[in-house]
Design goal:
homodimer; 238 residues; mainly alpha; Arc Repressor Mutant, subunit A; Four Helix Bundle (Hemerythrin (Met), subunit A); 2 domains; 3-stranded antiparallel β-sheet; 9 helices; 70% helix; DNA-binding
Amino acid sequence: MPAATTSSTTDTNNVTSLADRRLLHETVIDRLRDLIVQGELAPETKLNERVLAEKLGTSRTPLREAIKFLASEGLVELLPNRGAVVAPLKPEKMKEVFVVLGALEALAGDLACRNATEADIAEIRALHYHMLAHHARGELAQYFRYNQQIHIKFMECAGNATLTQVYRGLNAHVKRARYMANLSRERWDKAVKEHEDMLDALVKRDGARLQTLLRDHLANKLVMVMEALNAKSAEAAR
Amino acid sequence: MPAATTSSTTDTNNVTSLADRRLLHETVIDRLRDLIVQGELAPETKLNERVLAEKLGTSRTPLREAIKFLASEGLVELLPNRGAVVAPLKPEKMKEVFVVLGALEALAGDLACRNATEADIAEIRALHYHMLAHHARGELAQYFRYNQQIHIKFMECAGNATLTQVYRGLNAHVKRARYMANLSRERWDKAVKEHEDMLDALVKRDGARLQTLLRDHLANKLVMVMEALNAKSAEAAR
DNA sequence: TAGGCTCATTTTGCATACAAAAAAGGTTTG
DNA sequence: CAAACCTTTTTTGTATGCAAAATGAGCCTA
């Protein structure tokens, strides 16, 4: 029996293909979020509905729904009668986000030390070694990927889905900045060392120490991000 | 010159009137959120687009955009090809939210002790006395109103707009539950006493004590909400 | 009578149409 | 030459149209 593909236009950029049960506007949300987080749509870029809809292979209706969704996440800003722009990436905002993330990660670390199963810890350890491997090879993008996964896994170990959701939302803002970061080898090594310590604290179920480590780790990350932002704005001023 | 009202249908429930520069879908977002938070649209109610659009005096398009926005806030859930429902109000979810709120309020309390101006504190004191007045008269709704304002003001004193925004989002969930609460006089008196202590700690800029007080206050609030939820589910099971 | 089938109705999801607002461009005037 | 005005074009905001999916009502069958 041949695969009965749902009838659909065969546009170049069409998103739907093979038995795709997802809804178009949900796909658009994810694609648009990626475009923003990965910096393909730079901060303060105006979102032209006609152009974007075409680019994403849909009509304006699902696109507008996606824009509203992302506006609630704070990744885009709505300008009445003037559409929407990619949310600006201001140093001030970034500081705010890091303060909140600090509280959330500290909470997660504490909960994770109590709730993580041995299997959870084994999984984090595995991710950790993947990360080390990519660090050793100097593969920044891959490194970030596993780094992210470790932080998310920490969150999940806390066993609080609401916490994870809020974390993800705020973290999207940070990720945007990170894509510009030019991590120095020195900072990078330090970050890896911090991860070693964090894993150790989790293994020993030392919630208090883990909280401290997470706060320091975040503080260092903030410095990194601020440097990247400053470099970027200096570049823009040239 | 007579007020040149923008031409518009004169439906019964029409939202726009006199020089209203707000956009329809933004109005719809706020109205729909109120309906959900105040329980007029009960948890797990199916959102029929045609009916709701009519009720709000608009077409389905802005309504759908509003639904997507509120979905991101977590107040409604999207069911692919089956529309949307008001998010269920599960005790488990409520516990999660309170844990996160605890971390956020503690953070805010700490920051507020450092950053609040004397004018801020005066304003909180004023709100506090309003609250006391309504407590004395047994006016629950009004009491809640000022209670809310005090908590929001605390947040604002922390001087972190991102923190305030996240707080508001999570707090919306709690508010939903609170509208069912049947506060006993005993608990109510206790809550007021806690507020007295919180104000005192803020005046003395005792961040550590304020954090503890806020955590306890929230813990008590959680008990209240859980009782309300249990009472409601017991009622539903009858 | 319970279970399942078919067909009609409703509802959702997406595309398009249209009106109002904003932006762009050109012309005039100081 | 710049600023103010008017016109044209573009873009947004909302309503409506239409197809596909889901729902529900009969009807049949075991």
